[in-house]
Amino acid sequence: MTDFLSAMAAFWATPVGWTVLTLVHVLVISVILLICIAFILLADRKIWASAQLRKGPNVVGPFGMLQTFADLMKFVFKEIIVPAGADKFVFILAPLLSTVLAMGGWAVIPFAPGWVISNINVGILYLFAVSSLGVYGIIMGGWASNSKYPFLGGLRSAAQMVSYEVSIGFVIITVILLSGSMNLATIIEKQAGGFWNWNVFGGSEGGWWHLIATVVMFPMMVVFFISALAETNRPPFDLPEAESELVAGYQVEYSSTPFLLFFLAEYVNIVLMCAMISILFFGGWQAPWPTPYLQHWWPFWVSAHGFVMMGVKILFWFFMFAMVKAIVPRYRYDQLMRLGWKIFLPTSLVAVAAIAAWRVFGPVNGVYG
Amino acid sequence: MDLLAIAFYLLALVACVSAFMVVIARNPVHSVLFLILTFFSSAGLFVLLGAEFLAMLLVVVYVGAVAVLFLFVVMMLDVDFGSLRQGFVRYLPAGGVVALVLVVEMSLVAAAIAGKNATLRAPSTNGVSNVEQIGRVLYTDYFYFFQAAGMVLLVAMIGAIVLTLRHKPGVKRQDIAAQTARTEASGLRLTKPATGQGISE
Predict the structure, then answer these.
(1) For position A367, what pLDDT does the model report?
(2) Cα–Cα distance between A52 and A327 in angstroms, integer?
(3) Which SS3 state, helix, strand or coil, does residue A253 take?
(4) Number of domains present in the structure of chain A
(5) Is B47 part of a structural domain of the chain?
(6) Nearest chain B residue to A90, by CA
(7) CA A89, CA A155: separation in Å to the nearest integer?
(8) Is A120 part of the contact surface with chain B (CB cutoff 8 Å)?
(9) Is B68 in the same domain as B140?
(10) pLDDT tens-digit map of A193-203
(11) Residue B52 domain-assigned (yes or no)
(12) pLDDT one-digit tens code per residue, A261-293
């Protein structure tokens, strides 16, 4: 038996074993993520319905719990219609690309201490890169449909997502400056010790003086949240699909499974953004209180503790996304551009300078503390 | 052949083939999409070299922003695809010369590196991530060059804005501050006109 175990351990260290192990990791995360998305989608509809004093989906399964699976079946068994004159290859590639990129972002998200597929040094940049690539699925889908409404939706989305990426980038830089690292696990570990050490309250360095940085970091969190809404095309920034103007924007011509993939990518991206905001500003898997008791716990329970904390934060932010969808009316396109370029960009740029100055002249270098 | 070599040849092959397709694709939008694939494969090559920061920058800047604008412009253009193909043979000699020069230069560089017995792998970093390494070099030894590069970009950007920005007189413009400062008293007037007379103003 021990021979067998050591042989297995040796096998996992070989390139083939490593590949198999990583593939299994990816598979497990993808499946769990998809199942969670199914219920998160239902939660979105339920929250939206409650805000409008409706019941929401309540027919399929208890409390409508299986509604998403019924929708899945419906989508999958319909015919894929490719419009005449459409660029077939790009038309099919677009939703696939959207979904692959959305799922790909989860490769670097740490769910609990040590629970990450790939703990790369530039994890935060990778997330930024992947979310900025998401725009291609939409542009390609809009263009390949060979129709005016999808095309307009695609163009709108290109301009919108590029605009808001700029401010997201600057907000991320403030967090990198505070943490001194681009590694997501390091960023989370630095926020240990209670909610007052979270980045939204100025990070953990510099004694209690760090709370002064809240003045900058809290608005940055708000900027990030609003930019995340714009980046994922959620209401009030759902102009690429504005159903009252463009029917459904870039996805007008899509039916069946390709449409399902677009839909799925949108929600995976939303939850990814929720995970990002939890990690960057709210301490990821850290509890909001000091956790010295974790030293005495079994590793399994420590991981479970981390999963619960991370899950609660992601769900909270998803709830905020859903509430925004329920209560905020859609922006006009010029207002959207003005908000992105004339308000968020200067604000976040000043914040980057402020946090950089804070790191150099502030208490972190021992001037006050 | 280890995994690294397989990954390298795969990425290099994809990069070369898609770079070739950029030139020969019939549809300009397809050209841009192939260009994106080329960028992406090159980013993969950077990762193999251990330069993950450069790889991510390549993806964020070129794929995430520059190529989006390319695609944006190319999609908006009403291009007659037939006439675009006409010049292909005419431009072939010039393009061929440029390609030849590049090939010769690159072979010389590669030969020089091979002559010095340098390996393809990144130098040892002593546990310092390459983000930090680049930062240390960029903000110490090359600080003025770095700032100068930033200034050049700023000047180019402002120049482009100055050249294209026109304030036409007589165009109604939104004044956001005035809009939000409007109150019920300043923005609304209740009148009671007599029948058949209307409001005189």
Answers:
(1) 46
(2) 9
(3) coil
(4) 1
(5) yes
(6) B30
(7) 20
(8) yes
(9) no
(10) 888 888 888 87
(11) yes
(12) 988 998 999 999 999 999 999 988 888 888 888
* Residues above pLDDT 90, as percent of chain A: 18
Whether A302 maps to a domain, the answer reads: yes
Nearest to A279 by CA among A162, A101, A128: A128
What is the average pLDDT score of chain B?
83
Which chain B residues are closer than 8 Å to A128 by Cβ?
56, 60
Burial class (CB within 10 angstroms; exposed 0-12, middle 13-18, buried 19+) of B151: exposed
Q: With a cut of 0.90, is the ipTM above it? A: no
CA distance B65 to chain A (A): 7
Residues from chain B that touch A156, judged by Cβ atoms under 8 A, are: none
> Does pLDDT of A222 surpass 90?
yes
- Same domain assignment for residues B6 and B36: yes
Q: What is the pLDDT of residue A369?
A: 40
In the chain, the amino acid numbered A212 is I
Q: How far is A198 from chain B (nearest CA, A)?
A: 24
If asked whether residues B111 and B136 sit together in one domain, one would say: no
Taking an 8 Å cut-off on Cβ atoms, the answer to whether A155 and B72 are in contact is yes
Residues B111 and B132 in one domain: no
Residue B119 in this model has a pLDDT that exceeds 70? no
Is B201 a domain residue? no
Domain membership flag for residue A160 = yes
Asked if B57's CB is within 8 angstroms of A162's CB, the reply is no
Kindly state the percentage of chain A with pLDDT values over 70.
Answer: 96
Q: Are residues B54 and B74 in the same domain?
A: yes
Number of Cβ atoms within 10 Å of the Cβ of A79: 8
Q: Does B191 touch chain A (CB under 8 A)?
A: no
CA separation for the pair A346, A171 (Å, rounded): 11
- In angstroms, the CA A176 to CA B98 distance is 42
Question: In whole angstroms, what is the distance from residue B16 CA to residue B41 CA?
Answer: 9
pLDDT at B184 over 60: yes
pLDDT, position B159: 94
* Domains of chain B: total: 2
Q: What is the domain range of residue A304?
A: 104-123+143-250+267-361
Q: Of the residues B68, B89, B122, which one is the last residue of a structural domain? A: B122
Inspect the interface and report whether the beta carbons of A122 and B60 lie closer than 8 Å: no
Residue pair A87/A146 in contact (Cβ under 8 Å)? The answer is yes
Do residues B33 and B115 both lie within one domain?
A: yes
* CB pair distance less than 8 Å for B3 and A15: yes
What is the pLDDT, as a whole number, of residue A301? 87
Q: Answer yes or no: do B105 and B9 share one domain.
A: yes
Q: For chain A, first and last CA: distance in Å?
A: 57
Average pLDDT, integer, range B79-98 = 74
- B66 to chain A, any CB pair closer than 8 A? The answer is no
B38 and B134 share one domain:
no
A245 falls within a domain: yes
Interface probe with A: pick from B71, B79, B128, B180, most Cβ of A within 10 Å: B71
Report chain B residues whose CB lies below 8 A from the CB of A183. Answer: 129
Over residues A67-88, the pLDDT tens digits come to 888 888 888 898 888 888 888 8
Per residue in A108-138, pLDDT tens? Answer: 999 888 888 888 888 898 898 888 888 888 8
Q: Is residue B173 part of a domain?
A: no
Domain boundaries, position B16: 1-122
